[in-house]
Write a structure and sequence with these properties.
heterodimer; A: 0% strand; globular; B: 88 residues; mainly alpha; 2 helices
């Protein structure tokens, strides 16, 4: 009988709690969404797996699990060396404190995103960049709502509100600096709602736009009112643009530079072409892929049962949805107001893509336009406001960090 | 709590204005950049052989387009394709 007792204590069964089993279910749901449904698989699968491995008891020799230990719970962890953290708290805490807590990975991911981004559509339709600004209204509106619930202090509310920018790395970076203890639920909410862009945008569009507005054909409008600035050397413009923009952001919102600067550096090495092809390939390939794995696993591992299962998490899930919805609505109404005063009309779907969920928001907008008019291909126009949304959300994050960080 | 709300009002005003200012500057400087590049660095019009110039039995239009694009990328826009010959 004693041997069975020893065997039982050797396994993890003795330390299991109902909270851990609930967290497994959440992990399985995320894995299901990533593997079977194909929603943001590159992130939801590492995050889901990170949650799973973080919710087993007694993994390490010192009796600890693999979940990330918050710095406020582990006395002195903030002053330990990385080697000591690895020995004492295991590999996941090593990754978390080295790569996440330092704010290293989100800018690295932005560099890779920059190397995959083409500013061409935005440069060809510069006036559409304004709608990337309008769509940031969800961030600042939800800041109020979150404060009004009484569940969040202002730093936590700002971290929740940045979900409205629809940009995972920006949400993670802001949260690391303002409310690190909410990193897990905020990252999950941000990426889950980004995965649900094909559901959220059509829902908001249905509530706010009529068929006539959705049938505005952007190419026809361009023929009726042609643009004065035809670009005669797009390559030169694309190379100078990231350098110019970096200087501009660095001067006006320097706190946005870790994100925006890395995004624009990645874009610059892509646009230069063959002479920096190796840098561009590294940034958009191995570095981005490795960063995504470590970010996903570490963020997932922050979601241990005692951290995740509370009222704030529910507030983040609900608040994140509102932030997304209000941002899409803000973009749509900005276009409607613009159309009141201009002859050259813009399809409101362009405003709906002012989020930074690139390129999914643009694809969804294009699909809706084609359903209403099979000849209305507006992908390139939607990409213009979509890309400006990436810059807009990074700038909004910079403002929040400057005032609250 | 009231102090938090007044900070939130300030953040909304400063945040939205900053985002609009940055994107407005992008529009303004972007247009200037395009004007300057158009005036001083317009891309030279490159002569590219047309389908009619190439013997139709040797290469089809898709392959020709791929070759022209590859030369364009590798030579950073300086090279031009004048003829394409099939080598046995």
């Amino acid at each position: 009988m004693e041997i069975f007792d020893k065997l039982y204590h050797m396994t993890a069964f003795s330390g299991l709690t109902p909270g851990m089993i609930l967290m497994w279910l959440i992990a399985f749901v995320l894995l299901f969404l990533g593997v079977v449904k194909g929603y943001e698989p590159l992130l939801l699968i590492p995050i889901g797996f990170g949650i799973l491995i973080a919710n087993f008891p007694l993994v390490l020799s010192n009796g600890m699990g693999m979940g990330v230990v918050p710095s406020e719970e582990a006395e002195g962890i903030a002053h330990m060396t990385i080697i000591e953290i690895a020995k004492e708290y295991g590999i996941i805490n090593f990754l978390y404190y080295l790569l996440i807590k330092t704010g290293f990975l989100p800018p690295i991911i932005f560099m890779g995103v920059g190397a995959l981004t083409d500013f061409g559509p935005m440069l060809r339709n510069l006036r559409l960049a304004f709608f990337g600004a309008a769509a940031q209204i969800g961030i600042f509106t939800v800041l109020f709502i979150a404060l009004a619930t009484g569940l969040f202090n202002i730093k936590e509310a700002a971290s929740l509100a940045i979900i409205g920018g629809a940009d995972g790395p920006t949400a993670i970076y802001t949260t690391i600096l303002l409310a690190e203890h909410l990193l897990g639920p905020i990252a999950i909410a941000a990426y889950s709602y980004m995965a649900l862009v094909p559901v959220i945008i059509p829902l908001v569009v249905r509530l706010t736009c009529n068929k006539k507005e959705l049938q505005i054909n952007m190419k026809q409008q361009d023929k009726l009112y042609p643009s004065k600035n035809e670009i005669k050397n797009i390559r030169a413009v694309k190379i100078i643009f990231p350098i110019l923009l970096t200087a501009m952001i660095g001067l006006i919102v320097p706190s946005a530079l870790p994100l925006a600067g890395m995004l624009l550096f990645g874009n610059l090495v892509k646009e230069i072409g063959t002479s920096t092809d190796r840098l561009s390939s590294a940034a958009s390939g191995p570095i981005l892929n490795a960063a995504t794995i470590f970010l996903g696993l570490s963020v997932g591992a922050t979601m241990t049962a005692n951290v995740f299962l509370d009222l704030q998490t529910i507030g983040i899930i609900v608040g994140g949805f509102f932030a997304f919805g209000i941002s899409v609505t803000g973009g749509i109404y900005a276009v409607k107001i613009y159309n009141l005063f201009n002859k050259k009309k813009i399809n409101p779907l362009i405003g709906a893509t002012g989020l930074s969920a690139v390129p999914m928001a643009s694809r969804v907008a294009n699909d809706i336009a084609l359903k209403n008019d099979p000849g209305n291909h507006l992908l390139q126009y939607a990409m213009a406001s979509n890309i400006s949304g990436v810059i807009g959300s990074a700038v909004a994050a910079g403002v929040l960090i400057t005032f609250l960080g | 709590m009231n102090e938090d709300f007044s900070t939130a009002v300030l953040l909304m005003a400063v945040g939205m204005v900053t985002v609009f200012v940055i994107l407005a500057l992008i529009v303004v400087f972007g247009n200037w950049l395009i004007l300057i590049v158009n005036k001083y660095f317009p891309q030279p019009v490159r002569s590219v052989i047309s389908q009619a110039d190439a013997p139709s039995h040797e290469i089809d239009s898709k392959k020709l387009a791929a070759i022209v694009s590859a030369v364009d990328i590798v030579t950073k826009g300086r090279g031009k394709v004048e003829s394409v010959k099939k080598v046995d």
